[in-house]
Amino acid sequence: MMKKIRYGMVGGGTGSFIGSIHRAAAALDGCYELVCGAFSSDRERGLESAAALGLPAARSYPDYVAMLAAEAVLPADQRMELVVIVTPNHLHVPVSIAALRAGYHVVCDKPAAMTLAEVRALADVVRDSNRLYALTYTYAGYPMVEEARVRIARGDLGTIRRIDVRYRQGWLSDPIEKDGHRQAGWRTDPAYSGLSCCLGDIGVHAFHLAEHVTGMQVQALSADLATHVAGRRLDDDAGILLRFANGARGTLVASQICCGEENDVSIHVYGDRGGLSWSQNDNESLMLKWPNRPQEIVRMGGPGSSPQALARCRLPAGHHNGYIEAFANHYRAVAGALAQQAISVPVGEINWFPGIEAGVRSLAFIETALANSNGNQKWSEIES
Amino acid sequence: MMKKIRYGMVGGGTGSFIGSIHRAAAALDGCYELVCGAFSSDRERGLESAAALGLPAARSYPDYVAMLAAEAVLPADQRMELVVIVTPNHLHVPVSIAALRAGYHVVCDKPAAMTLAEVRALADVVRDSNRLYALTYTYAGYPMVEEARVRIARGDLGTIRRIDVRYRQGWLSDPIEKDGHRQAGWRTDPAYSGLSCCLGDIGVHAFHLAEHVTGMQVQALSADLATHVAGRRLDDDAGILLRFANGARGTLVASQICCGEENDVSIHVYGDRGGLSWSQNDNESLMLKWPNRPQEIVRMGGPGSSPQALARCRLPAGHHNGYIEAFANHYRAVAGALAQQAISVPVGEINWFPGIEAGVRSLAFIETALANSNGNQKWSEIES
Amino acid sequence: MMKKIRYGMVGGGTGSFIGSIHRAAAALDGCYELVCGAFSSDRERGLESAAALGLPAARSYPDYVAMLAAEAVLPADQRMELVVIVTPNHLHVPVSIAALRAGYHVVCDKPAAMTLAEVRALADVVRDSNRLYALTYTYAGYPMVEEARVRIARGDLGTIRRIDVRYRQGWLSDPIEKDGHRQAGWRTDPAYSGLSCCLGDIGVHAFHLAEHVTGMQVQALSADLATHVAGRRLDDDAGILLRFANGARGTLVASQICCGEENDVSIHVYGDRGGLSWSQNDNESLMLKWPNRPQEIVRMGGPGSSPQALARCRLPAGHHNGYIEAFANHYRAVAGALAQQAISVPVGEINWFPGIEAGVRSLAFIETALANSNGNQKWSEIES
Amino acid sequence: MMKKIRYGMVGGGTGSFIGSIHRAAAALDGCYELVCGAFSSDRERGLESAAALGLPAARSYPDYVAMLAAEAVLPADQRMELVVIVTPNHLHVPVSIAALRAGYHVVCDKPAAMTLAEVRALADVVRDSNRLYALTYTYAGYPMVEEARVRIARGDLGTIRRIDVRYRQGWLSDPIEKDGHRQAGWRTDPAYSGLSCCLGDIGVHAFHLAEHVTGMQVQALSADLATHVAGRRLDDDAGILLRFANGARGTLVASQICCGEENDVSIHVYGDRGGLSWSQNDNESLMLKWPNRPQEIVRMGGPGSSPQALARCRLPAGHHNGYIEAFANHYRAVAGALAQQAISVPVGEINWFPGIEAGVRSLAFIETALANSNGNQKWSEIES
Questions:
Q1: Which residue of A has its CA nearest to C297?
Q2: Which class does domain A148-315+356-374 fall in?
Q3: Where are the domain boundaries for CATH 3.30.360.10 in chain B?
Q4: Which residues pair with C170 in a beta bridge?
Q5: Which homologous superfamily is D142-316+356-374 in?
């Protein structure tokens, strides 16, 4: 009989967006069981959330400190094994460090931290912990993003020359943070969100896609961050030029004021032998373009898919997957690692998952972009 | 604390396609708990399936008769409350009737039955049972199919004149049933599938879409069923002309030999004031076309959506849903009904679900189409 | 120095839709020169049209009889060589026969005739005339329709099993013929249009696409024609089941009351080794679907195109062609034939064009569909 | 009787790409007549080209100087009235100036000049000439690009905040200029192409789209030009950050090494009240996205189109237009201006055409981008 992984959640109370996604993703394959939570800093809301999720009040904790302490004294077969962190950004590192030190595995929503210094400290803890640390870069969970990565890694496109990646949304076109919109509130507040709103919330997704899909690192960037909505305290829009170590060039656009857009996430990569593109709006298709033969569409679960991509499909081709399934692929990979008593799975293996290295890169990206955007220097190197 | 609905499953053992979908759909919103099953007629496979699903061997039953008997003597707070039927078609009615008579609610995969006579007998049992009976017409669970239904019901398109619906697949292009393909094996075997392969498997989906989205009934049809693969015992392809009571005309194409197609499901409806279309391949968009203003795209969860469609969304617009989510909407509606101690929810309410009437219509459709296709008469009326 | 083909036009006066298309198509490659016309039965309008087109009044004739007579006495190097017929349908055959008998080549808009008897008589005249007769089935002029034909002819899809073709428009959703709409007026008037409005106007395009692309003939059909707009004298909507000689099945939908549609023309063909589809709304792409390798998109002018399709491209891939270019491909093919003193070019050659055989098939289709639709017999064979 | 505008062409001999486009565009509406040409610096090729185009040898000139001199002494009713310049870039200004000074109107392909100094000198001549000067920025001729411009000009999107424009091709992915590819040869040769290959060939199209559609000027830019193909003498790839005077931000990507791309031209514009996008690959649709109502698609010639966009359509909605038609819209506008004895038509009028101002802006853009790309300064202002 399969044993489910018992997890506790920090954050994600009633009305949270990302908390419910994590729970649905964990539930999808039947490998996880939510056993406790510190769902909210508001004690009433925390208790309500726990009740709504079918948890006993005894395992609804007022905060993560209490949770870690209380769980530690439970019998080993009841105690949580893994902490899922879906709080605003300011708690990502404190909770991660406390959980890892207390011996729990950690799944944390992105970004990994508020600052580069903070994430480096966390990386040290991860390395010393002998515990698993996973960072949910959602889009890397899509089967056809994996197919794109595999294709480039095996050289189908030849030497990569150009990468254009974007993530455009419209939900922050108006100052909704002033109208009590909870999600907008903390994301535009430096105390909860960090140094950047737009880059921390969606720019890191685009950055991760660019580095992850190509297997290459951005060496230098030139950034233009803007705050279009009057009175907003953090940026809501970014255009960035990218230079990769091999001479490839690219652009990254991340914006939350693209009025009318939902989640316009896409990546286009061009090598000297072919090009590919993927867009979240048709997430089940990977477009391949060639100089000397017809364009191809590799379909999720369809012929031509790599084993790595097929491992991320739950349904036969033509039965559509979505965001939760992409998210769930990270949870499935984490479950697979734990089943084999592994605490990491390198990219390239079947069912790998993003870890702390991706987190460090993202914070290095954010800080470099901010510094560059505020200065007059053309290029700034990313060091991580 | 929320109480989960305890369900038992008949069919759906390891390697089953639709069983895993039902389980994922039931799990998605956290409202159901699988407590027992008669997963396979092969006892070993049944036990393995149960173990893989985390069930104790004691609640893995050899068949549905044993399951109904054994569960009946369990304490009320452990006993299953609902039976999910995901067997081949030949067992749909026997299990449904036995379960309803034993006092359980039923969720059954389509088609409801093998024959019209059989489904009529079941309908009588449903009516007398005071128990809920739900039939999972998947596509009706998609939010934008619901939006289409709402738009037509409120008259946006005016009087409906033309409906073209199709469901094209390619998976039965070759005689894979002869190579031990389990899904193909039973679907092409009259003893397990019924009178028709193509209509029973996918034609009923198209038929249900046509009647459900328009709120109109097909009055007469003229059908051309074919078996393209040599040696196959049932049809694998159908083209059908439709006439509706109000004078509207239409076509229904269902085919399993459309080589290279995954699940090309779509519906186009035209009234005297506008037209709409929906396709599973872009399931989050409802296209609206007008004679005197620009085309519109209503997006899942986006502005312009009706409350009924919004009730079928789990995520903000732009976070993509798929097949499991559509399926899960039926489970969510069933859970909602049971929470209110209702055994049915009429179409038009928030969170309705398809019931036995849809099942009767579909079998009437299949039998009428078969008789017509075999004869020389142009039109045959559907009586149900 | 290249000699341009001198042509006269019958019909196509100011305000005509199709006349201006023919002129633009003829002009596109610089192979034709309009030298005279009988543009309108209204003498004033005819003279105005000629003036607007830069023709001297002397070569603006009151009718085709006068045109044929007057041109006959002009010097051979000024006299028209070819007659383009863009009148309402009732004049197609009389003008064609008179022109052919007077020794002129003919390019005629579809349909070729009002009735099957009439087109058969014309076919005899064509055969005896030693003159070229071309029928402008526009869609066959699109490069990617030619690519589809080539692919099927060379067996890429294997044995064809299913063909679904459609042409849906919305422009006749309202009785605009009663409001003085010229195009709608004659098309819905049996005296000018013939036995059918919808089939004669657009159904024949769909029928021609089906037979032309597959290289197969429809053997029998079962039709349902309807007139949805009250008071209209001819049909405006049709759904038809098709049976081909080799056992392939299909549907043809042609409708002018699909409110909000512009020209939704598409064809889907499935064989036992693959499928393809083409849609006018993305006319530069031919979609190929395979059971065992990724989908392909052959692009107009791009890699993988056949020589026959490339011969229909004017621009490098990525510079978009449209309706006029498709039309112009017929004119180019006619010019090519005349340059080689050929009066026909069989389908399959580079730069063939549709001729009288396609015209006969279309009228046989219309009459068979009408008879079938009016009767109770399931299937009617098309004899031509 | 309509008088056609007599034009002579400089460049555009047999095998030229853009020369044949200009001729087809001029021919499309029947307003122009090609009367002479200096088609090639190769005398034989020039004579052959003239013959193929149906011109007498006497009006096939060895070069533009000879053409201007010879035409000047022809009778006024035979002499050309307008010079069309389709040479490589190095001759654009010399021919333009000579033609204007000789009293001819000029239609010139983009870019207007090799350098900013050169185009400024030309601008002076244009201003003093009392002759019409038109610059064929093709994409501005598309009806739905005009619709985009109109929508933004009238404020539908509110204050513009973000503009992303791109033009990606793959045809220069390999060093085809070394294999005798004529088009690639001169475009990558500074002596014929100017300071930049990628920006001069396609970057200026993207830049013009950005400024033209928004009606706003780029104030400053930060550019990263690259040469990816070894041995190439000019750039083949560019990523550029844009800042507009009102605070709007943007990116411009132009690349000729995007392997497998044909002409991926698109623009996305976002204001504080809505967003729009247009792509050449679906040139007949303008996508409009709104925060509070469904997305809209305005279709070429369809409901909701502005008079300005409708004036650029030749066919009813659903009959597809393409590249030649877009090009022809500039020729039609020039013909309209000349018919009214106007030498310019401001943007915003029905049937305006791009003129010398657009040419000056483009060269200012190229020189600023080059200087910035070569330096370490973040931002460079465009002065023109």
A1: A295
A2: alpha beta
A3: 142-315+355-374
A4: none
A5: Dihydrodipicolinate Reductase; domain 2 (3.30.360.10)
Tens of pLDDT along C215-249?
999 999 999 999 999 999 999 999 999 999 999 99
C-alpha torsion sign, points A68, A70, A75, A79: negative
What is the distance of C-alpha D83 from the center of its chain?
16
Taking contacts as CB-CB distances below 8 angstroms, the residues of chain D near A222 are: 222, 224, 241, 378
Residue A326 main-chain phi, psi, to 5 deg: -60, -45
Nearest one of A54, A62, A24 to A328, comparing CA atoms: A24
Determine the topology of domain B142-315+355-374 in CATH: Dihydrodipicolinate Reductase; domain 2 (3.30.360)
Residues of A in contact with D281 (CB under 8 A): none
Q: Which helix (H) or strand (E) covers residue D295, if one does? A: strand D295-299
Please give the structure tokens belonging to residue C293: 């390798």
What percentage of chain B carries pLDDT values higher than 90?
92
Choose among D137, D111, D207, D92: nearest CA to D353.
D137
How far does Cα C338 stand from its chain's mean position?
A: 20
For residue D249, the cross-strand partners are: D162, D243
Contacts of D323 in chain C (CB under 8 A): 315, 319-321
Structure-block tokens of residue B185 = 């094996």
Omega prior to B88 cis, within 30 of 0: no
Q: How many residues are listed for chain D in this entry?
A: 384
- Residues in chain B with CB shorter than 8 Å from the CB of D277 are none
| Among the listed residues A235, A239, A237, the one whose alpha carbon sits nearest the alpha carbon of residue A189 | A235
Exposure string for B31-46, b = 16+ CB within 10 A, e = fewer: bbebbbbbbbeeeeeb
What is B5-139's CATH superfamily? NAD(P)-binding Rossmann-like Domain (3.40.50.720)
Chain A, nearest residue to C294 by Cα: A298
Contact B241 C259 (CB under 8 A): no
pTM of the model: 0.97
- Predicted confidence at residue C2, as pLDDT, reads 59
Asked whether the beta carbons of C314 and C175 are under 8 A apart, the reply is no
**Assigned token pair, A262:** 């939902």
Integer Cα distance of B72 and B80 in angstroms: 9
Cα angle at D276 between D271 and D282, to 5 degrees? 165
Instruction: Determine the Cα–Cα distance for residues C108 and D120; give it in Å rounded to an integer.
Output: 53
**pLDDT 10s per residue in chain C (384 long)?**
458 999 999 999 988 889 999 999 998 888 999 999 999 999 999 999 999 998 999 999 999 999 999 999 999 999 999 999 999 999 999 999 999 999 999 999 999 999 999 999 999 999 999 999 999 999 999 999 999 999 999 999 999 999 999 999 999 999 999 999 999 999 999 999 999 999 999 999 999 999 999 999 999 999 999 999 999 999 999 999 999 999 999 999 999 999 999 999 999 999 999 999 999 999 999 999 999 999 999 999 999 999 999 999 988 888 888 899 999 999 999 999 999 999 999 999 998 999 999 999 999 999 999 999 999 999 999 987
**From-to residues of CATH 3.30.360.10 in chain C:** 140-317+356-374
* Neighbours, chain C (3 or more CB pairs < 8 A): A, B, D
Tell me the shortest Cα–Cα distance from C29 to chain D, in angstroms. Answer: 7
| Average pLDDT score over chain D | 96
Q: For residues A295 and C299, is the Cβ–Cβ distance under 8 A?
A: yes
State whether C294 and A299 contact (CB < 8 Å).
yes
Contacts of D247 in chain A (CB under 8 A): 226, 228
* Record: fold of C140-317+356-374: Dihydrodipicolinate Reductase; domain 2 (3.30.360)
Interface of A with B (CB under 8 A): 1-4, 17, 20-21, 23-24, 27-30, 51-56, 169, 171, 261-264, 280-283, 299, 302, 314-325
